[in-house]
Model the fold of this input.
Amino acid sequence: MKQKLLKPMGRVTAVLIWLVSSTSYLVADDLKVALAAEPTSMDPHYQNLTINNSFATQIYNALVLQDVNQNLIPGLATSWKPVDDRTWEFALRKNVKFHNGAAFTAGDVIASMERAANVPNSPSSFATFTKGKQFEMVDDFTIRVSTEKPYPFTPNDMSRISIIDSAFLKATTEDFNTGVASHGTGPFTLSKWLPGDVIEIARNENYWGNPMEWDRIIVKPIKDGTTRTAALISGDVDFIERVAPSDLPTLEKRENIEVFKSVSNRLLYLTLHMTDNPIKPFVTDKNGTPIKSPFKDIRMRKAVSHAINRQAISDRVMDGLSSPAGQFSPKGYIGYSSKLTADPYDMALAKKLIAEAGYSDGFKLTVHGPAGRYSNDTRILEAIAQMLSSVGIETSVETMPASVFFKRFARGGPDKKPEFTAAMSGYANGSGEPSHPLRIFIHTKQKERGYGPGNRNGYSNADVDKMIEDGRASMDVEEGEKAFIKATEIAMNEYALIPIHHEVATWAAREGISYENGALDSTFLHNIRK
Amino acid sequence: MSLLVFFMIHIVGDPVDMLVNPESLPDEIERVRRDFGLDKPVHIQYWKFLMGALSGDLGNSYIFGRPALALIAERFPATLELALAALFIATAIGLPLGIYAGLHPNKWITRLIMSSSVLGISIPTFWLGLMMIIVFSVSLGWLPVSGRGETTYVLGIESSMFTTDGLKHIVMPATNLALFKIALVIRLTRAGTEEVMRLDFIKFCQARGLPSKKIVWVHLLPNILIPIITVIAIEFGTLIAFATVTESIFAWPGLGKLIIDSIVNLDRPVVVAYLLFVVTLFLILNLVVDILYAVLDPRVRLDGEK
Done:
C-alpha cells in the first residue's frame, strides 16, 4: 500500500525538478524593473497622478522637460522667452517624428492642449495647466501662449502636458490603453500593457535626443517591498525602486547590488491651528474642557518645533532614511533658502517658551495623521507625541486610513472647515516652480483666486501674501524666485508650518547599472544606465 | 449586499480627495464630483446604480475610467488559474495522504502527516509566502519570485499553465495558497476513511478476499468523496475570493490586487461589482455541488432517473 501511494508522489517530484532545472537567461540588452505602483492609464492626459506623469515621460515629450531636480530643460521646444508682459513664445524643435512616423509641428501642440483639458471622466484633469491660456500658432515651428495677467510659470505648466500627434485629438483613453493612439515622440515606444502584470517598452530608434541603451524595458508592478527586494536578489529583475527600509542594510552589504539614495522633495510637516475660530475639541485643559488653540501664540509653535528631536526620528524611526527639514525645499532644490535650517532639539528652550506663553500648567492635545500613507507615518507621530508630552503638552495620537484622513483634514469640521487642531501630512512639489508651496499652504485662504487651498491652520500675513502675488505676476523668473525665498523665510520664522523631515528616496540595482537620481522620489526609466 | 457596501464606502471618505491632485485649481474637485455623479444625494446615487445594474452596467471605475465588470473580467482568468492550481495541489496531495492516514492510524508516518497538517492550518499565509520566496528564489534560485509567466492560448483560453515559464511562476503562489487546503483535505479524508473502514460493507469486502487496492478505489473512495467535494467546492470559492494575501506577496495580477487597491482608493463601483461577483460565484458553486451530489450518490438522484 505504502509503495503504491508513493509512486505518484515520485512522479510529481520528478516534474518539479524538471521545472526548476530549465532556467531561463536574460537577453543581453533587456532591462527588467520592478516598480511599487503602476500607471492607472496609458493615456498621458487621463489623470494628473505622479506615477502616470513619470511614466508618460518615457513615451511622450512635453514642450519643456524637467531634469532630476525639476530644473527646466529644452524638450520639444528648443527655447522659450517672454515677448511681452503676458505672452511667452516657444521655438519648436524641427525634424522630430512621432512613433507612427508623423512629423511634429505646431498643430500637434494646439491639439494636445485641447485634448489635455477635455478628457471625459478624468479623475484629475490637466486643465489646471491650460486654463486661462490662449494658444496661438505663429508658424509651423513657433507657438505663443498668452495669459490675461503676467504669468511667469507658463514654461513650468508646459512641462506638464505630453504632446500627442494631432491625428489622435479625438482618440479615447481606451485607444491609448490598447496602444492604437499611444504614439509619442519620447525615447521609448509602448509595446505592451497588461494591467497589474507587465508594461513593455522598446527603444525609439528615431529619438531626437540621446539614444537609449536598452533595447527593451520590462516593468513589473510589485507592491510588496520585501518581494521587490527578493526579486532583485534572485535576479528576476535588475532594478527596483523604494527599497523597504528594513531590507536596506542587507542590500548594502551584498557585493553584487548597488543602492542609490537621495534626499527627496517629499516633506513631512505638522500643521497647528492658529485662530480662535472655531474652538476645536482637540485641545483641552487638564479636565478635558476645550480651550482656545494655544498655537495662536507664535511662542507655542516655536516651542513645538524645538521640542521635536528630528535627528532621533531620522536615526531610530526612519532607519536614517530622512533628512531633518526647516523649509519646503531640500538643499539644492528650487526655492531653497540657505538661511533656514531645521530647528535644533532644545527641551529647555521649549519649556521656557511654553512658560512665557502662560501654558506651564500644561494642556491636552490630540494630533491626527494618516496611517500607511507616508513612510513610518504612525511611528513618527507617536514619537512626536512623546516628545511633546515630555515638555508638558500631554499629547495623544489618532491615525486613520488616508481615505478617511484627507476628507476630515480638508473639511471634516463644522461648516466643512478643516477638522483638526494639529495634524501631520506630506507635500511634494510636482510643478517645479518655487511659488507652488507658498500659494498652496502659506497664502491666506482665498478660494475663488486659487490661493491657500492647503492652508488649513488659518495662517495669514499680508506682507507675505503680497510677496507671493507680486512674484507670481513678474515675468522676471529670477527676481520672482528671490521674492519667494524671502516669503518662505518670513513664513518659516513665524512657524506657518512645522517642517519635520524630507524623506530619503531609495533605489537598488544589480552591479553595473547606475541611476541618476535627484530630488524626485518617482522613478524615471530613461535615467537607468549601464 | 450592494446597499450595505454602497453606504459604508460613502460614510468612510470621499474618493475625490484621493483622486484629485492637490495642485489642481479649486474648481477641479467640484468638476470631478459632478462628472462622477457624487454631487447628488447618496440615495439618488444608489438608485442610479440600481437602474444601471438592472441593465448589466455596474458603473465605471473612478480610477481607471473603465467599466468595473470589464476590469474584473480582465483579472479573473489569472485568479481562476491560481485557484485551480491550488485546488489541484490540495487534492493531489491531501487525498492520498488522508487516505493513508486513515488506513494506518498508528504508523509514525501518519503522526508525521497529521502533525504537519496542524502546521499547515496554523502558519500565516503571508509569512510562509515570504519564507518560500527566500528559500526557493533567493537562496536556491530555482523559482521566479513574482508575477505570472508566459501565457498561451489553449482552446481559446489564455492561460499560463501550458508553458514551462508559466508553470514555474505558478508553483509557489499556488502551493502557498493550497497549504491550508491541503491540511483541510487531509483531515477530512482521514476522518472519512476511518469512519467508512469501520462499516460492515468494507468488512464484507475484506472477508470476500478482495484486494485492498480494489477496496480503496471502488468501495472506499466514492463513499468518502461526497462530504469532501462539498467542502472543496466551497473552499474553491474562498480561494478565488480571498486569494488577496497570496496575490499581494507574489504580485500575481489577479482580482486580489485590484480589490485591495480599489478599497484603499474608495473606488466604489469596483468594490460593489466585485462583491456582487463573489456572491454570484458562491451561488453557482453551490448549484454545482448539488448537481455533483446527484452524479456521485445514487440515493440523491431524482426518482425520474430510475
